[in-house]
Design a protein that fits this description.
The chain is of the alpha/beta class.
């Protein structure tokens, strides 16, 4: 029930979706939503494959935002956020694939899965062919993002999945119109500062420079996810970045 999950939950309920909220601590859910008639709350461990599969059963879409943006050690697990994120993603993918086997037998379409990641997973916009992701430039900055992406590509082939890759996320009011970029940010700010133009380190400084400028609100992310829980179309098996211009 983190900030992104809570905003997505609110938006999904506003769309009149039937939602199962799978959480470690139900008390952290927004108090104004817990009694909503379309919400079922399931308390469980996100690395328990049977519990996750049971929560997915009967649904057409999954939003996975657990352990997003955390690389510190969680007090309840003695694991870093990076390690926990990788374990949760493996569990969710494997559980979703298990559920999809039944859906396929019943003639149902692929399960829609959104995984919340980060801007660093996107390709660096000016990079030459072959494309280089920003995580290759900053390999120690949330390395779990690329690990999770590769796991989806290798093991989630029967799923209709996408990665949501925001930059800076804040609680304020939206800054302007929404920009949606696929695979690399269409908006990119080139710093006038000399360090941003230096060989080798310049591209890395540019990534950090743009992170705070390619911003979006938690509410906008929640609404975007709720609006895109149908078949993925152009977002299927893609990295998607959302910014407010």
């Amino acid at each position: 029930a983190g900030s992104i999950g809570s905003k997505a939950l609110k938006s999904c309920l506003a769309h009149n979706y039937d939602v199962t909220g799978f959480v470690r601590s139900p008390s952290k859910l927004p108090s104004d939503l817990v009694s909503h008639e379309n919400l079922t709350i399931v308390q469980g461990d996100a690395v328990d494959p049977q519990a996750v599969a049971a929560a997915i059963e009967g649904h057409d879409a999954v939003i996975q935002s657990a352990a997003f943006g955390s690389n510190f050690v969680f007090p309840w697990s003695n694991r870093s956020g990076s390690d926990l994120s990788e374990e949760i993603v493996r569990t969710v993918v494997d559980a979703a694939v298990q559920v999809q086997k039944k859906r396929t037998a019943e003639g149902k379409p692929p399960l829609r899965v959104w995984n919340v990641s980060g801007l660093v997973l996107m390709d660096y916009p000016p990079s030459p062919t072959p494309k280089k992701s920003m995580s290759d430039l900053l390999p120690f900055f949330h390395p779990e993002n690329k690990v999770n992406w590769n796991y989806f590509k290798d093991h989630g082939t029967t799923l209709d999945w996408s990665f949501l890759c925001p930059g800076l996320i804040h609680d304020g009011d939206p800054r302007g119109p929404l920009d949606v970029s696929i695979e690399f940010p269409k908006i990119w700010h080139s710093p006038w500062l000399i360090p941003g133009r230096l060989p080798f380190v310049g591209t890395r400084l540019n990534v950090l420079y743009n992170f705070s400028r390619l911003a979006v609100t938690f509410g906008t992310l929640g609404e975007f996810l709720a609006d895109n829980l149908g078949p993925g179309g152009g977002y299927t098996q893609m990295r998607v970045a959302v910014f407010e211009k």
